[in-house]
């Protein structure tokens, strides 16, 4: 059964329960003292009625000052403790969100925008911090104030207490009436904030495209529309809050006025002593402040509740591909690099036909195999299936005779280096990008990988050579340089199998062929699967697999395939024609 929001909140607090219990415990102490002080004051008033004695006054003043100081110190300590818990929960949640997001597949990030996720990890977490800091403190304060003060008031005068508190159920009713509206409006604000963050994030990433298509005005309008929606959502929320909060404050003060009016009359008729009257007044005053804060407390609570839902939605998304319970360990040193598919089929969710269908092949260790075929023929899908970036069925794909679904996922990914077409680089030094998979790699290893990827000579021409910072996502490098840096990164981890998914598309044919040659000989020899539209680079591979509409339609080396009528011959002829026309 799904957990309730309260259960989630309790689970966030669990690691810090001692601090919470201690913080709330000392808050109880302060509330006990705040019931005691009005009693003392009432007592002084009564005594002074009998005799006016400077000495008594002084003694009481010192006592009250001492108690007030102790209360102040305890209140401070409870705030530090409970607000501190809020901060710690904020830290825990951010940490958990980040770790959880890292466990999810790229498909999750295609369905959920980055702006929205960032907003959840920051603004929503902040709302939970407020809930578990301010709201918990305030709710505990209200609870103790009522539980301790009301019985003390009743002991003085049942009638006056009931009349003074008659207003409080009205306040609760008001809070109840407004609460759904406040929650919905809070949700609208969070959603609008996410939409705005998404737009900013997307526009900043695609600023080049915006300029090429001269879409600045349209983007400004889109921004203005979302910003306006956020403004409206914030104003609606502010309207509701500004209606409710002063109403609550006003009603709470009304009880003070009632005690004043009725109490004075009771003193006159002799049914209430002046001392008790003063004590009652102070008690009602004790209740007014926390009750007036009820509005803020409720909003903080509701804001936090909305955010709990939004954060738990992230945790609810589970990685589709995970290590099976019975998975075996496959150390990279033991991998020979043989791959076999037996009727491999994969269909993307919400599509009608499989992207790859009933595919079978064997690729021997050290073989360099090109995968060619028209756009959309399933090459990338097959490439992603190999390191299980896609969730493939059991018993259809094998690495060295081990079913890939039964190999521990980190071992499988360590054995198969996958280089996608879009070569993402981090905004750090070239050398750090190269050693991303092996953070402790030394310069000779880094240089060796760069040489194999044919990027070494260009790096040496960069202003700071290997220490050159590549800018966000490698913006300061050319497409081909980015691709070869990404390839160098994959080569540095020295995996026995290398999958290049159109990863040399911005590299000229000659360099691409040179790179493949580097990988086919000597100690660096690997099993290479080279997905490409570059026919002349493919022609040099040991073997070529030709795909069409999710099926393998031809297999063989260039010489045999090119002489047989079929898809390969067509692709080759098109390529030759293009060369002539260029
Ligand atoms: N995430 C996805 N969700 C749904 N369908 C997808 C997804 N990715 C790819 N497809 C579909 O699967 C089919 C095969 O796509 P795939 O990317 O494997 O082709 P490809 O041969 O690599 O193409 P290209 O040469 O353009 O890279 C296509 O019809 C494509 O539209």
From TrEMBL:
Residues 21-303 form the ABC transmembrane type-1 domain. Pfam families: ABC_membrane, ABC_tran. Keywords: ATP-binding, Cell membrane, Membrane, Nucleotide-binding, Transmembrane, Transmembrane helix, Transport. It is a multi-pass membrane protein. It is found in: Cell membrane. One of its GO terms (cellular component) is plasma membrane. SUPFAM superfamilies: ABC transporter transmembrane region, P-loop containing nucleoside triphosphate hydrolases. The chain crosses the membrane at residues 20-41, 56-74, 131-154, 160-178, 244-268, 280-301. Residues 339-574 form the ABC transporter domain. The keyword Transmembrane helix applies. CDD domains: ABC_6TM_TmrB_like. GO terms for molecular function: ABC-type oligopeptide transporter activity; ATP binding; ATP hydrolysis activity. PROSITE patterns: ABC_TM1F, ABC_TRANSPORTER_2. Its main location: membrane. This is ABC transporter ATP-binding protein. It comes from Leptothoe spongobia TAU-MAC 1115.
């Amino acid at each position: 059964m799904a957990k309730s929001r309260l259960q989630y909140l309790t689970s966030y607090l669990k690691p810090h329960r001692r601090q919470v219990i201690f913080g709330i415990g000392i808050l109880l102490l302060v509330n006990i003292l705040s019931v005691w002080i009005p009693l003392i004051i009432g007592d002084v008033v009564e005594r002074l009625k009998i005799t006016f004695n400077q000495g008594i006054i002084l003694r009481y003043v010192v006592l009250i000052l001492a108690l007030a100081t102790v209360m102040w110190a305890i209140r401070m300590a409870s705030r530090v403790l409970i607000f501190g818990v809020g901060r710690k929960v904020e830290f825990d949640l951010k940490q958990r969100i980040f770790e959880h997001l890292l466990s999810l597949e790229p498909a999750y990030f295609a369905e959920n925008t980055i702006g929205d996720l960032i907003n959840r990890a920051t603004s929503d977490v902040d709302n939970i911090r407020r809930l578990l800091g301010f709201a918990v403190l305030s709710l505990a304060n209200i609870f103790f104030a009522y539980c301790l003060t009301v019985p003390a008031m009743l002991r003085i005068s049942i009638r006056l207490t009931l009349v003074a508190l008659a207003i409080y159920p009205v306040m609760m009713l008001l809070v109840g009436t407004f609460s759904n509206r406040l929650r919905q409006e809070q949700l609208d604000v969070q959603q609008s904030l996410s939409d705005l963050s998404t737009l900013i994030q997307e526009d900043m990433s695609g600023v080049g495209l915006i300029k090429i298509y001269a879409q600045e005005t349209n983007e400004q309008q889109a921004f203005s529309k979302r910003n306006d929606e956020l403004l409206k959502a914030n104003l609606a929320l502010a309207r509701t809050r500004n209606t409710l909060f002063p109403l609550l404050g006003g009603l709470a003060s009304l009880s003070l006025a009632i005690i004043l009016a009725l109490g004075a009359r009771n003193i006159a008729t002799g049914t209430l002593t002046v001392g008790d009257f003063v004590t009652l007044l102070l008690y009602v005053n004790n209740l007014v402040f926390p009750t007036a804060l009820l509005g803020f407390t409720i909003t903080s609570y509701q804001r936090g509740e909305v955010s709990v839902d939004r954060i738990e939605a992230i945790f609810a998304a589970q990685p589709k591909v995970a290590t099976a319970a019975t998975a075996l360990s496959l150390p990279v040193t033991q991998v020979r690099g043989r791959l076999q598919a037996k009727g491999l089929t994969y269909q993307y969710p919400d599509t009608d036909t499989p992207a790859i269908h009933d595919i079978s092949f064997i690729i021997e260790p050290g073989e360099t195999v090109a995968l060619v075929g028209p756009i959309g023929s399933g090459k990338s899908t097959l490439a992603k299936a190999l390191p299980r970036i896609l969730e493939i069925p059991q018993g259809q794909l094998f690495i060295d005779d081990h079913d890939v679904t039964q190999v521990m996922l980190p071992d499988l990914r360590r054995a198969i280096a996958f280089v996608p077409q879009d070569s993402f680089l981090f905004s750090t030094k070239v050398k750090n990008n190269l050693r991303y998979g092996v953070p402790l790699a030394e310069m000779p290893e880094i240089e060796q990988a760069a040489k194999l990827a044919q990027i070494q000579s260009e790096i040496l021409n960069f202003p700071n050579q290997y220490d050159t910072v590549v800018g966000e996502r490698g913006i300061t490098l050319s497409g081909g340089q980015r691709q070869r840096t990404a390839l160098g990164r994959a080569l540095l981890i020295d995996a026995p199998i290398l999958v290049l998914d159109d990863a040399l598309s911005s590299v000229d044919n000659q360099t691409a062929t040179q790179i493949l040659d580097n990988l086919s000989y000597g100690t660096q020899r690997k099993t290479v699967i080279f997905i490409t539209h570059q026919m002349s680079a493919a022609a040099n591979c040991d073997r070529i697999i030709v795909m069409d509409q999710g099926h393998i339609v031809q297999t063989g080396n260039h010489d045999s395939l090119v002489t047989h009528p079929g898809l390969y011959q067509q692709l080759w002829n098109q390529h030759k024609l293009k060369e002539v026309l260029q």
